[in-house]
Every structure is written in structure tokens, then in C-alpha cells.
């Protein structure tokens, strides 16, 4: 009887925990929506920021652009290395000491605090190269942040390819490398795409690695100038670029809880959450779509 | 004593040109001894069946002949395998060249996740077949496996839409498109229905005119029906090899007889 | 004649070899270069942070005993960082004390109590929680939690309590997802054996499932702690950033990460203060490595 009573209480407790966690999430999202949605306007999305210390809200256009641009730059660097590394881990790594060491490296790298990666980036890409705060430095720092995850995504996607596919190609006298690139990678593509977009969501929200690499400021961008070598061009990779996440942090640490700061960061946080959630949903849908195309004509 | 309804009669006109020869072939997977001192001879343009209970080493031997065991990290192979007198483990031989020469068909139909056309064209392109020849070879291969009429209107649709039997015939077409001299089949019909199985068995009889065929099968009746030679394997040993008619009527070894009469396996 | 045929076969077997060999070699090299990039980046990171972090001690500007004392006063060139390090530990431990039981309970709920419903709702919940950027957690902490604590609980709002609460939500998804893996890997027959002996569900969970999954659960908790220890912005936004002794929930304190975040941009590399920040980075890195070793130790014992 006693044991049964305890059992019932335990079940009740587990339900309570589950509900608590779900309510926490709803609360967090609700808070962001309530404190953000009313500030969203076309101007907010398309105008440069005002000086919020003086009470001007302005917009977040450059920050939003920087976030996406930085994401694209990071992916351009990360994808080839990540796919190469993932292929090595899945197909070429032999069970020996080097592979063990490699796995330890991946593990260490994926658990590094992002502020440490930021410090390393500051040292190497800002001070040592003499670039100062640049998009390129930020992209390289984010690459370090993202690379271990990308390698793991690719490795898992390739390992999940049916062995029969690999054997079929090998038995036709196709080299291992061509088997990987022409047969296995296309089959692994849905997994890689899903993983890459989920990683993109993570990059999009990252700020600590960027504070000291891409910087806290953004020059006045001229959105009609698309020459990457020009100073005011949005595409110039060697200019400082505060992203949306960095901007939220900066607004809040510059001006403690003023009305304007609340509006700017509330609106920005709302946009940030929306983009990250969209990435998550998009990742699942695109992965499923590619898988369907692949298996049926 | 043994009672098999269909045993292929011995064909007096079988070639006696040796195609594959193994000498003292041993295979170890880590600590297990998978094949023990195999001395095997296969003749040109014949069908040889490998039979025996699961884990007897018949698939392992098959996969030695085109060096598919290279992909297994802890496999250790000693002894010689000669194909037309050439040692396939010689330094100058690259596994890719060998596998083009020795094709393989697997237990589970495994078409690539590509169109029917691409399934055959893919490896041709890798091996630098002239572009204008590819459609000709694709059509010819599909005709030889009797699939052309069934798929000629949907060559560019996914191969995965085909039925299991069609998929397996496509895999055979893909293999013969490489113009090999030997075709290895690893239980090619075990995943198929009886009608598809019959089609493939008939197909093998016609392919025999051009290729040396080795088939691993779990099904003794299939071996009796289609093969010219049968080899019986047990626990990594090759117990006996001979003309199919002889093996299935008067086996020399009692172990073979016990297996064929259903005492075990 | 026959001999000729044999040579031609040998030639035929060898002809594509060179082309295929180079193709394979090239591809394999590309992947090899990729993994070496990863290794070299990591090694240079460890080397740069270590050498930079040791600088103030090697220059003799600060001694180790000064660094590990509690006397912090940068204007007076006193850089005792003990309270800052303790701050990091305190906030990590407090967050883990809240998050570990909750996370493991949620994992039990998802696997043992209501697998269908739990997976359908809690799984996406944790996925969304993990996707929320840390500045957003910081922003919510700053604008919701800090005023709330200041008004209804005590102090100014900034401090250990706010940091703890923010971090405990942030590490929750990590603990949940790894605990779920650990609990799911407990063989079903263990549970059946326990039920067959007449144990209740709770007794089975407590005595069999959690006990068997313990190494995995420990890994989950340690990974959560590592994440909490290294988290920078969210903590910095709510912790108050005054290096007080971190033993009171309601006074502002500092952590290693908050100190670095706050001051790295406001000091110049020639200052001792700036160099000390790098030393703090080194301490942070070393503690992270200890966490990783701990996880290795736990999982290796399980495998053995």
C-alpha cells in the first residue's frame, strides 16, 4: 500500500516537472513576443539604428544584414572542411591512435566555451593579422565554433548510408573516393542539409565569439554599393560588423534598462527568435523534401 | 538415397579453360579463421554454385575473388588467387581494375538512388566510356537481362520504383555493362519472390554463354537446377567440389550427403 | 597464343590503375587536410591562450599567489581573482543543483512515464530551448528576472540568484537530451525483470533504471556544468559584475566569463588588467578541459 502511494506521488511529480518545463518555454516565448512584436515595423527592419542613448530607436537593417552575411561567409569556410573531415571520420579513419587523438580533439573543440574562441580570434584574426575587427575574423571564429558540429553531422549522415550502396559502387570498380562523393554523399545529403541548417541557427544567435572579432560597431552601410572592396559596401569582408545578437548585448550593457534600450532589444530579440525558429522548421522541411526527391525519381 | 527432383545433367561440352584458381587460400577476420586452405578451380563459361550452412565461408570466398574483403579492416588474407593466371594480390593490380573485370551482384537488390539509366551509366562514365557509346551499352545491357521492354519508356525515372525482381535484374545489367569476364552472385534471389527467382535463374543460363558465373546460394534446389559445378563448404573448409549431377546424386563425402539429405543446416 | 592473352589481361587489369590510384589519393588527401586543419586550429588555440595567459606571471607583474588571492583592486594593481573564480563555480553548482534533478526527471518522464506524449511535446520543447540564443536568455533575465528579484525577493536584483536561474534554464536541454539517451540505452529486460518481481514503476525507475543509467546521467550533468561554466553573455547581463564574495544570493558578483566579457574591450593590451583577463581565460580553458577529462573518465569506466 505504502509503495503504491509513493509510486503515485512519483508519477505526479514527473508530470509536474514536465508541465513546469513546457510552461517555462511558453513563458519565455510569450515574453519575447509580447515585448517585441509591437515594436516591429517596416522602418525597424529597414533603417539604420538611431542613437538609443539619446532615445532614438531607429532600425536594425545593418545588424540583420551582418548576421546573414556572416552566416554565409562562415558556411562557405565551414562546409568544405566539415565535409572533408566528416568523410575522413566516417570512411577513412582506421581504428588506431591517431583516430583516437582526433576524436579527443573534436570533443575538446566542441566543448570549448565560445568566449574562449572569441579570445583566440581576437589574438589571431584581430591583433596578429592586424585586420582589426572584421567580418572575416568573425567568420573564422565562428568556423572554429561550428566546425566540430559540422564534422559530426557529416560523419553521422555518411555512416547512416546503407552499406549496400557503398558495396554496389565498389564492386563496379569505382574508387572509394568516387563512391563517397558520387554515391554516398548524395544519399547522405538530407542529413547533412538538416544538420547544416540547424547549425546555422546556432551560428545566427551566437554572440560571445563575435564581441572581440567582428566587433560591436557597424560602419554606415551604403546598400547601393555592392563592390566588396569599397569601405562602405555591405559586402566588404574587412569591415567591422555587429550582428543582431551582439547588438542586443551592446544595447543592454551600454544603457541599463532605459525605455529605448528595452524597445530596441525587445524588437531585436523577437526577430532573432523568429529567424532561429524558422531555421529549425526549415531544416526539417528541406531535409524531408530532399529525401523524397532522392528516393522517388 | 538423395532425392532432388531437378538436377542439372552433366554437360559434356563444358570448357576446360581455367579462369579462377585459388591456392592455399586462408582468410582470418581478427581471431576467427573464416576460410581454411582453399584450393579451388573455376572453369570458363560455367556456373559454379557454392552451398553450405550459414557461416561456412562461402560468401567470404566469393568476396575474395573480387577483393571486396579489402574494405574490411581486420581481414587478413594469405595464399594466392589467380585469375587467368594473374595473381590478383600483385602490387601492380588495383582493386578497381580487378572489380571491373570481376562483377558482383548482392543479396539485397541495391540499385543506386538514381534513375534507371544512371544506374548503368554511372560506372561507365567513371571508367571513361566514350559518351556516345553509353546509351548503346545501357540499352544492350537492359536487353540482355530482359528488362528493356519493361523500362524503356521510363529510363529516367528512379530505379527505386521498380519491383524487387526488376531491381535485381537492373543490378545484373549494371554489372554486365562493365563487360566483365566473371560475375559473382551472392544469394541473388533470396530476397525475391518465386516468379522473379525463376526469371533470374533463366537469365543466368543465357549469361553463361558469355561469362563465368559463381553463385552463392542458400537454396540447394537452386544449385541443383542451375549450376554445372557445385562446391560444398562447412566451417571454413571446402569439403567437396564436383559436377552438380555427381554432388547431388552420389556425393563423395558423408558430410555433404548429410547436409544435402537435410540432417543439418 | 594463350600466353599472349594472359599478358593482355594483366595489362588490362593494370591500365586504369594509375588514374584510379591518383583519383583516390587526391580525395583521401583532401579529407586528411581537413582533419589536420581541425587539429592544428585546436592546438594553436591551446598554445596561444596558454602562452598569453601565463604572460603576467612570467613577466613577474603578478605572482600566482596574488592572482589566487581575494584582493581585487585594479586601480591599485591588485588582481586577486579568487572571488571571481569562486563566482564561476558557485553559479555553475547552484544552476546544476536546480537543473540536474529537473532535467533527469524530465528525461524519465519522456522515456518511462509517458513516452508517446512526452516525446511529442517535450522533445520539441528542449530543441527550441537549446536554440534560443544566449543573449535572449540574458535579455529576459535582465528585463524580467532582475527587476522581479529586486522587487519581491531581495537586493538589487543582480547577482548569484539571477545568474543561477538563467543558467539553470540554459543547461536544462543539454541535461535532458543526454539523460534520455542514457535511460533509453537501459535494456528493456531489466525493467521487465523488476516488474515481474512485483516492483512498482517508481521502484523500477529508482532502483533499476536510474542506477543502470548512472554513468550516462553523470555525463549529462557534467556536460551541463561545462556549458554553465563557459557561458558568458547571459551571465554577464544578470550577475552584476562586481567581484564580491559569491556567498550571498542577492549581492552582485563576477565570474571569469563576465569579467572577460565586460573588460576585454575596455582595456588596452599593454595594461596588466588586460593581461590578467587572458589569465582568467586560461583558467576557464583549463577548467573546461578538466570537465572533458571527467566525462572521458566516466564513459570509459562504463565501457570497461
TrEMBL record, chain A:
Localization: Cell membrane
Pfam hit, one: BPD_transp_1
Gene3D superfamilies assigned to the protein according to its UniProt record, in alphabetical order: MetI-like
Residue ranges crossing the lipid bilayer per the database entry: 12-34, 68-89, 101-125, 131-149, 183-204, 261-286
Presence of keyword Transport: yes
First-listed, main subcellular location of the protein, grouped into a coarse class: membrane
GO molecular function: phosphate transmembrane transporter activity
Membrane disposition: Multi-pass membrane protein
Record domain ABC transmembrane type-1: where: 64-282
GO biological process, alphabetically ordered: phosphate ion transmembrane transport
Keyword Lipid biosynthesis on entry: no
InterPro entries in the record: MetI-like, MetI-like_sf, Phosphate_PstA
Family according to the record: Belongs to the binding-protein-dependent transport system permease family. CysTW subfamily.
Name of this protein: Phosphate transport system permease protein PstA
TrEMBL record, chain B:
NCBIfam families for this protein: 3a0107s01c2 (TIGR00972)
tRNA processing found in the keyword field: no
Domain of life according to the entry: Bacteria
Pfam families: ABC_tran
GO terms assigned for molecular function: ATP binding; ATP hydrolysis activity; phosphate transmembrane transporter activity
Organism, as annotated: Shimazuella alba
Alphabetized UniProt keyword annotations: ATP-binding, Nucleotide-binding, Transport
Name of this protein: Phosphate ABC transporter ATP-binding protein
Gene Ontology, cellular component aspect: membrane
InterPro entries xrefs: AAA+_ATPase, ABC_transporter-like_ATP-bd, ABC_transporter-like_CS, P-loop_NTPase, PstB-like
Biological processes per GO annotation: phosphate ion transmembrane transport
Limits of the ABC transporter domain: 20-260
SUPFAM superfamilies hit by this protein: P-loop containing nucleoside triphosphate hydrolases (SSF52540)
